Amino acid sequence: MNPLPESVEVRRGTPRDAATLLALQHRLDAQSRFMLLEPGERADDPAAVARRLGDQLGFDILAFHHDIAVGWAQVEVQPWARVRHIGYVVLGVDREHHARGVGTRLMKAAVHEAGVAGLTRLELTVMTDNAPAIRLYLRHGFVVEGVRRRAIMRGSGQYVDELSMGLLLPGPTSRQSPVGAGRAPRRSASPSAVRR
Ligand SMILES: CC(C)(COP(=O)(O)OP(=O)(O)OC[C@H]1O[C@@H](n2cnc3c(N)ncnc32)[C@H](O)[C@@H]1OP(=O)(O)O)[C@@H](O)C(=O)NCCC(=O)NCCS
């Protein structure tokens, strides 16, 4: 057993978390072949991350260990009326903290906050060889909706398929959040370009 330390805190991200989130994103890019960006492709601009955290339709949930971000879930919402009910989920946990329940807590919090925000559908894509992530998504009720063939080109020329997965939510839930107080998502027309 590798129990989750009590000192891991899960809460909504704010602009003040930009630097620690960016550092985690860089670590994840370097650690995992399952994230979208190759190491070195991510812009090193905490101010841009802070702007996104403060001015977006969706929200981020962060897991902290001693004030360092060790896990991250992003729920991105597009501003357009016909898709404003959908959140696109990105999830990543620092390798040092895998298999301690951090990903589960992040996903639980993301689903809860999505309900509070009035979203009625969550969706994501996941590489077909990412078994731990697929198991986690299935455990939370996501279902496989399709296969995106050759969606990813990994390393030097290896195509990988992705699964499209979706979860329908019942509708608005109460504001009592398991992740601490956070303000409601603002409406603005600035969908972020990089999803994970
Ligand atoms: C996928 C990912 C987010 C899962 O995060 P995680 O924090 O390891 O997830 P959890 O700890 O909640 O669950 C993982 C496993 O640990 C187990 N676990 C949870 N708490 C545990 C504990 N205290 N002790 C032992 N095992 C535990 C879970 O049951 C689960 O087992 P399973 O994979 O056999 O079903 C993580 O592996 C990751 O970030 N991978 C790299 C990036 C990535 O792939 N992102 C997703 C892109 S779509």
TrEMBL record:
One of its GO terms (molecular function) is acyltransferase activity. Residues 8-170 form the N-acetyltransferase domain. Residues 178-196 have a biased composition (Low complexity). Gene3D superfamilies: 3.40.630.30. Transmembrane segments: none annotated. InterPro entries: Acyl_CoA_acyltransferase, GNAT_dom. It comes from Paractinoplanes globisporus. Keywords: Acyltransferase, Transferase. It comes from the Bacteria. This is GNAT family N-acetyltransferase.
